[in-house]
From TrEMBL:
It is found in: Cell membrane. The keyword Transport applies. One of its GO terms (cellular component) is plasma membrane. It is a multi-pass membrane protein. The lineage of its organism: Bacteria, Bacillati, Bacillota, Clostridia, Lachnospirales. InterPro entries: ABC_transporter_permease (IPR051393), MetI-like (IPR000515), MetI-like_sf (IPR035906). Belongs to the binding-protein-dependent transport system permease family. The chain crosses the membrane at residues 20-43, 83-107, 119-140, 178-201, 222-242, 275-300. GO terms for biological process: transmembrane transport. Keywords: Cell membrane, Membrane, Transmembrane, Transmembrane helix, Transport. Gene3D superfamilies: MetI-like. It comes from Lacrimispora saccharolytica (strain ATCC 35040 / DSM 2544 / NRCC 2533 / WM1) (Clostridium saccharolyticum). PROSITE patterns: ABC_TM1. This is Binding-protein-dependent transport systems inner membrane component.
Amino acid sequence: MVNEKRAKTRKKISYGKWGYIFLIPFFAIYFIFSFIPLVNTFYNSLFENYRSGLTQIGPNFVGLENYVSIFQSDLLKYLGNTMILWIIGFIPQIIISLILAVWFADFRMRLKGSTFFKTIIYLPNVIMAASFAMLFFALFSDDGPMNNLLIRLGVSNNPIRFLATVWGTRGLVGLMNFMMWFGNTTILLMAAILGVDASLFEAASIDGAKSLQIFTKVTMPTIKPIFIYVLITSLIGGLQMFDVPQVLTNAKGSPDRTSTTLIMFLNNHLYSKNYGMAGALSVILFVITAALSLVVFFVLTGAGKKRGGQS
């Protein structure tokens, strides 16, 4: 009888509440440092609030005028610049990362020193982006080491002005983003591949599948969720690109603002203390990021087709 009462008492105890209790700190921090600032940003975007010299103008309620002004500016140009800079760095990043992840995760290859190489390729991710940009600025300046090397090798007779051309500057930004993030992407993809049941690869090999077929028919479908995660997080990071082009172009986005990103555009409004315009641009950037992320997610997962088929 005593044991039966104890068993009934244990059944009545609910452990679900402890899960909610442990989630309280997260939601409290999110509410204070993310949700409230987000609502406050949207609220401030509806006001005229800037400084003209020593005179403070506003805050005066102007409704959606700040949004109209943003869309009448060079917003689309800066959005295009941001996407181009992200694509230039992301395409080689995902290709090299996939190749390295497959190599490192393939036990049949038995690569020696793989731990050492994985550490080396991840190291650039630890370096601050501003420091990385300053290093590239010194290396590829008109009288920098790279130009001296090219002249001595006879590749060029005169210094190449990398930072004075549109694609020279964009190429350097893309190269830096590639070097900083391909190691992190490699580690994520490698972890995804290592999580796949080895029997799938063995079965494919026994059936006579070649390496490329195994990669396209087994590896990619099984790591698709992680691949989508990498793509979306990289897209969000690309839309928030700031420090590399900011330092490399000395905050000018040169030449002719072809390297100016959305966050650099936002920073210009914050620097001039035009908080209403900055708030409106922040909201627009939030909407663009959410929309593009949802498009990528639904396109790659085919969620829309599945719902359509079910209905």
